[in-house]
Design goal:
heterotrimer; A alpha+beta (293); B alpha+beta (195); C alpha+beta (693); A: 293 residues; alpha+beta; Uridine Diphospho-n-acetylenolpyruvylglucosamine Reductase, domain 3; five-stranded antiparallel sheet; four-stranded antiparallel sheet; 11 helices; 12 strands; globular; B: 195 residues; Ubiquitin-like (UB roll); DNA polymerase, domain 1; five-stranded mixed sheet; 5 strands; 14% strand; binds flavin-adenine dinucleotide; binds iron/sulfur cluster; binds FE2/S2 (inorganic) cluster
Chain lengths: 293, 195, 693
């Protein structure tokens, strides 16, 4: 690990300035991904700006009645929040399906969205990887890619996004809020992670130096019984082989509306739009699903 | 490598402050088990390495150094964390509790007693982490936190399935899992987690 | 002094329990040491090749760096040094520019602090000439050759082909198990320093005396000049049976820098540089009559190894003793590849071997339409089928019957895919096993202290097996005193020769020496010090088939839509001789069964098909079972006694692993109707396209 300076900030503007000032600066939140990758030699910041003391923690009601989750809220606090559990149970489930109790106590919402892929070649600087060093090639394409992308990949990169939380957020059409020195902005989660194309190093559309301040959820989900289901190689403490977040609005036995997002299958939470279209307006029964019974 | 030496921690840092400088080293005040340690650390030092190599508390173990095993679990302000992914500088201001700080003067906590009585370990290498994790986990449960196996819409009830899911961040290669789960449930039944 | 209640057979918590739950128990990397320097290992990123250059100058001036040791300045090592199987090229670290396998240590960077050593090690530029490699294992690899026959050599009894031709059913299948890693939670760590003329080291290993002999040979030092100790050891499972790279490099560091040097492997390096179980492919043919009587067993196993060192993965050993059969043929093939030398991992040979044999037996039962339990009972041998020797004791039937009773096996519908619970399929399976037991020569000495206590010195190691507690009890009973009168000292090469903790022979070997010493001391009137060596006694032990036995029963649920397999119940009945401490023995066998569960469902070392390098060499990629994977496990013991060994004890350290993978695989078949002949039973191997049809 390279030597670095460390600063803890309490003002958003101070954080933005420190990061803008120096190319090698990075925000540090829970550190569960950044410190890990620094140990692997994948990340080598020269300055860490610790954002955990910024006034960005907690879950509150937004002006439109939706939920606003502060960027530094820990994953544990998101999952345990009564309103999240009541209105967006799939989000609580998704967060709880990720990592471990210890890691969720450290990990934050902002850091979770920006965690890097778990592709083994990416984490090993002695291997070629277009995402880590553009133009070096993708070791996974011809290598072991058992758990890599099945949707939206390119020859340049077949990695998946590892976040469980983001899958549920995608199903709820959440919006990411950020600040920069030139002002703030918001990005719908469905547009937050761009297609891989030939720029796998371009993982989000967040402006450079931007600080995520919050994620907002709409006033109401389609239903109060949204669910998250994760399949993995062991029963807990493992990344997804595949996961699904689904929210189904049913009225009189008819699927009024439906949102489905898949995890572990693409470089972004994958909205299953055709499946949604297929189900929408149809009968809400098991038989609807091809191969179901 | 410039080394920024500040006169004394107390003066430089006040109660909860961090020495703000452009240096690669910091003077920090680490609260461990109720004792304040004034340390000059390389910013790269993790809380785990600071505890083990600087404070001399080797009870906290390193199994992987990447957040993948739970052996290094400690409590920060009462919440369980993996100390291998927390920088020592980032732990400044938090009250850190390690396995050495759990029991009072020579007295084992109920959770420690149950681990011994029910043989909740073999080699013992994962044990400090399991015990710290269990203490943190029982507090989380007491606050009503759900887990991945809690049915949505209902409140969790601590049974073996809940304990297993909540403790899954602590690997044990000796395979002491069933006795650990029993020890945690027995402790919970005794209703006195921290003694 | 007599009249103390016996300590053996009593369930007692471990003597070191309070130290382990308070963090006071010290492991190798915990030992405080003045003037300590830290060494970080740099390992090869190519699978085969040569080192072109190591640019030491690039890191020499980094903060805190004391220096770098590589093949140009390392002390010369004795190439004769080796392990159980002969000279081991895996020990010859930093001797030349040759890279024989990925992850081979190429340098040791030593600095004042851990952070500084790590930073310099990461920054050290190493360039390689890359040579073509071969890490592609298969049983019919052209390089395959007969394995060394030190044990588990080829056996031919009767005429296998004729018996198979005459059989009512013949099962012929292949079974695959991947590279598996011991993965003890404590990464290997050693601290070495000189005290005058003596080399001292605290190391995490399974037997300090044996390790000291290896170090002495390797560095061409007289044995008296080498002292190796262990503190508490955070698990071994085979990987700490060898002199590890941490110790070789720490010693080099101490020699080179003339101060204490600590080398602790990173978790990644534990995967890359410490012994693993090799990948194995097996072929089993079994022929049986209509009534379930076996006519022939043909079991061949091929495993990978390294040209650097011999090794035997004795997969067919239990096939030679488990069932009566008029014809038996076994073969072991070794396939040299460009890999780290494999070595024994908990349940070596037996764990993968029993997976193949016991799955094949299940298929025989299926084909015959008989109860798999009944099939085992019908094929009990009266003498060793290969050796012709009598069994010292054989309590497999008791394990099977008692296990079946407790598990409720009688009500099982033996047809597959008959039980459903909502979207889940449910199935049960069993496996029978044996594991060879015995003892190796050891020394022990006991001193009668003036205050009426006894100091017992034996070179045992406690890897979490409970050796401290068990040997204290054994010594107490042998001396006919209470356990509180016994002071046990272990784990110091100065204590003299003893077998290491391994091969399920640690406790039997040490206990034998202790009981001999105690008998001698008592006959001399409890005076002074006596020292014994059991070498001769062991020679006098008559040849017998000596084994532990067990029957393992598993119940699984399978979600055919996702391929997820969960073990819902696991029960093991064991015959492991006299049980010294039921609490710890149960922990041992349950731990083993969890190792077996982990092997069945999770563990798989994966190599990059292009570079031949490990790509999941950490705990996020290489999964071992976590809490949530493990149900409450029932394990118990049938009455058993080994007549040839003092106190009637056998080993219990490894048999738990054996049998469990087959029991689970058979249960998965029973649930789904599909056979799983490759481990681990991953979701993608189980998932069904039309799950609910
Ligand atoms: C062993 C292990 C298992 C795991 N398993 C899972 C799993 O199953 N599912 C899952 O979803 N996750 C899993 N994780 C990942 C974990 O959830 C993430 O590491 C975590 O959510 C990251 O959050 P953090 O606050 O620690 O981020 P950090 O590590 O602090 O930061 C991550 C990145 O985000 C940036 N960043 C942080 N906050 C902000 C902000 N406010 N604005 C702008 N940039 C910011 C940082 O600069 C950095 O680049 C696992 C991690 C580990 C180590
Ligand atoms: S899949 Fe993507 S992250 Fe993985 S090696 Fe290829 S480019 Fe790198
Ligand atoms: S050492 Fe921290 S989680 Fe393994
Ligand atoms: S007791 Fe050995 S790893 Fe848990």
């Amino acid at each position: 690990m390279r030597e670095f300076a460390y600063q803890r900030v309490t003002q958003v503007r101070e954080a933005l300035t420190l990061v803008a000032e120096n190319d090698g600066s990075r925000y540090l939140a829970g550190g569960t991904n950044l410190v890990d990758l620094m140990k692997c030699g994948v990340e080598a910041p020269t300055r860490l700006v610790d954002v955990r003391s910024l006034p960005l923690g907690g879950v509150r009601e937004g002006a439109d009645g939706g939920l606003v989750i502060g960027a530094t809220t820990t994953n544990s606090d998101v999952a345990a929040h009564p309103e999240v559990r009541r209105r967006f149970p799939a989000l609580s489930q998704a967060v709880l399906a990720g990592a471990s109790g210890q890691l969720r106590n450290m990990a934050t919402v902002g850091g979770n969205l920006l965690q890097r892929t778990r592709c083994a070649y990416f984490a090993d600087p002695s291997q070629a990887c277009n995402k880590r060093v553009p133009g070096t090639g993708c070791s996974a394409v011809d290598g072991a890619h058992h758990n890599h992308a099945v949707f939206g990949w390119s020859r340049h990169c077949v990695a998946t996004h590892p976040s469980d939380m983001a899958v549920a957020l995608a199903a709820f059409d959440a919006v990411v809020h950020y600040e920069t020195l030139d002002g703030g902005g918001e990005i719908p989660l469905s547009e937050f992670y761009p297609p891989v194309g030939d720029t796998p190093q371009q993982e989000t559309v967040l402006p450079s130096g931007a600080l995520i301040t919050a994620v907002s959820l709409p006033k109401a989900a389609l239903s109060p019984w949204s669910r998250y289901r994760k399949v993995r190689d062991r029963a807990s403490y493992a990344f997804a082989n595949v996961s699904i977040a689904a929210d189904l609005g049913v009225h009189d036995g008819v699927v009024r509306d439906v949102r489905i997002a898949l995890g572990g299958v693409a470089s972004q939470p994958w909205r299953a739009r055709s499946a949604e279209a297929f189900l929408r307006g149809g009968p809400a029964s098991f038989g609807t699903v091809p191969g179901g019974g | 490598m410039a080394f920024h030496r500040l006169s004394t921690c107390a003066v430089a840092l006040g109660e909860k402050g961090v020495a703000l400088n452009e240096d690669t080293h910091s003077e920090i005040l680490l609260h461990v088990n109720g004792v304040k340690h004034c340390l000059s650390v390389d910013n790269r030092t993790t809380l785990l390495d600071a505890l083990r190599e600087r404070v001399g508390h080797t009870g906290t173990k390193k199994g992987c150094d990447h957040g993948q095993c739970g052996a290094c679990t400690v409590l920060c302000d009462g919440r369980r964390v993996v100390s291998c992914l927390m920088l020592a500088v980032a732990a400044e201001g938090a009250e850190v509790t390690t396995v050495e700080g759990l029991g009072g003067d020579g007295e084992l906590l109920p959770i420690q007693q149950e681990f011994v009585r029910l043989d909740g370990f073999q080699c013992g290498y994962c044990t400090s982490g399991q015990i710290c994790s269990a203490v943190g986990m029982l507090a989380e449960y007491a606050e009503g936190w759900p887990s991945a196996v809690t049915a949505p819409g209902s409140e969790p009830v601590l049974d073996a399935v809940e304990v297993r899911e909540r403790m899954s961040g602590n690997l044990c290669r000796c395979g002491a899992y069933p006795s650990i789960v029993r020890a945690v449930l027995e402790t919970a039944a005794r209703g006195e987690v921290t003694g | 002094m007599s009249g103390a209640a016996p300590a053996v057979g009593v369930a007692r918590p471990r003597v070191e329990g309070p130290a382990k739950v308070t963090g006071r128990a010290r492991y190798a990397a915990d030992v405080p040491m003045a003037d300590l320097a830290f060494g970080i290992v740099v390992v090869s990123t190519v699978t085969r090749g040569r080192i072109r250059d190591i640019d030491v100058a690039a890191v020499q001036d980094m903060p805190g760096v004391l220096g770098v040791i590589d093949h140009r300045n390392a002390p010369r090592l004795n190439p004769d040094a080796g392990h159980f199987f002969g000279p081991d090229g895996g020990l010859q670290l930093l001797q030349d520019d040759v890279i024989p396998h990925a992850g081979r240590p190429v340098a040791l960077v030593v600095a004042e602090t851990l952070e500084q050593a790590r930073a310099a090690a990461e920054a050290l530029p190493v360039t390689y000439e890359v040579l073509p490699h071969d890490t592609d294992f298969s049983a019919d690899h052209p390089a395959g050759r007969a394995a060394m026959a030190l044990f588990d050599g080829p056996v031919d009894v009767g005429d296998v082909d004729r018996e198979l031709a005459a059989s009512a059913v013949v099962v012929r299948e292949r079974y695959f198990t991947p590279e598996e890693h011991c993965s003890a939670m404590e990464p290997h760590s050693a601290t070495a320093w000189w005290e005058g003329e003596r080399l001292q080291a605290v190391d995490s290993n399974q037997g300090p005396f044996f390790i000291a002999t290896v170090v002495a040979t390797l560095f061409s030092l007289p044995l008296e000049q080498v002292r190796i100790r262990t503190e508490h050891v955070g698990g071994g499972f085979g990987s700490k049976g060898l002199c590890g790279p941490q110790l070789v490099l720490a010693v080099m560091g101490a020699m080179h820098f003339a101060r204490p040097v600590r080398v602790t492997l990173s978790r990644n390096q534990v995967f890359l540089t410490t012994a693993m179980r090799p990948a194995i492919e097996q072929m089993v043919r079994i022929g049986a009559d209509d009534d379930g009587r076996l006519r022939a067993i043909h079991h061949e196993a091929a495993f990978e190894l390294s040209p650097l060192a011999e090794y035997i993965e004795g997969c067919t050993e239990l096939t030679k003793t488990l069932y009566a059969t008029p014809a038996l043929r076994t073969r072991l093939t070794a396939v040299p590849l460009d890999i780290l030398p494999p070595y024994s991992m908990r349940g070596p040979g037996a764990a993968p071997g029993s997976f193949a044999l016991e799955c094949a037996m299940d298929e025989v039962a299926e084909r015959l339409g008989i109860d798999p339990l009944e099939l085992r009972l019908r094929n009990e041998p009266t003498v060793g089928p290969a050796s012709g020797l009598p069994f010292s004791t054989r309590n497999l039937v008791a394990c099977l019957r008692e296990g079946a009773r407790r598990f409720g096996w009688a009500s099982r519908d033996h047809r597959p895919r008959m039980r459903r619970e909502g979207p889940l399929l449910v199935g049960t399976g069993l496996a029978a096993t044996s594991f060879s037991v015995g003892a190796f020569p050891s020394t022990a000495s006991i001193t009668a202290e003036p205050d009426g206590t006894f100091t017992v010195v034996v070179n045992a190691t406690d890897l979490g097996t409970g050796a401290r507690t068990a040997l204290t009890a054994i010594a107490a009973d042998a001396l006919a005193v209470g356990a509180e009168k016994v002071r046990l000292r272990i784990s110091d090469s100065d204590f003299g020769p003893a077998w290491s903790a391994g091969g399920s022979r640690g406790t039997t070997s040490w206990a034998w020496a202790i009981t001999e010493a105690a008998a001698k001391l008592r006959s001399s009137g409890d005076q002074g010090t006596v020292t014994v060596d059991t070498a001769q006694l062991l020679n006098d032990l008559p040849s017998r088939e000596r084994h532990s036995y067990s029957a393992v029963f598993a119940e699984v649920t399978v979600d055919p839509a996702t391929g997820e397999v969960r073990v819902r119940r696991l029960l093991g009945m064991f015959a492991v001789g006299r049980v010294v401490n039921p609490l710890m023995a149960r922990s041992q066998v349950i731990g083993g069964m969890i190792g077996g569960l982990s092997m069945a469902l999770h563990e798989e070392g994966v190599r990059d098909p292009v570079s031949g390098r490990h790509i999941n060499a950490d705990f996020a990629g290489y999964h071992i079972s976590a809490h949530a994977d493990v149900p409450d496990i029932e394990a118990d013991f049938v009455p058993d006694y080994e007549p040839g060994i003092p106190m009637g004890i056998k080993g219990a350290g490894e048999i738990g692993n054996v049998g469990t993978p087959a029991a689970i695989a058979n249960a998965v078949w029973h649930a789904t109707g599909s056979r799983q002949r490759a481990l681990p039973i991953r979701p993608d191997r189980v998932i069904e396209e039309h799950p609910l049809q």
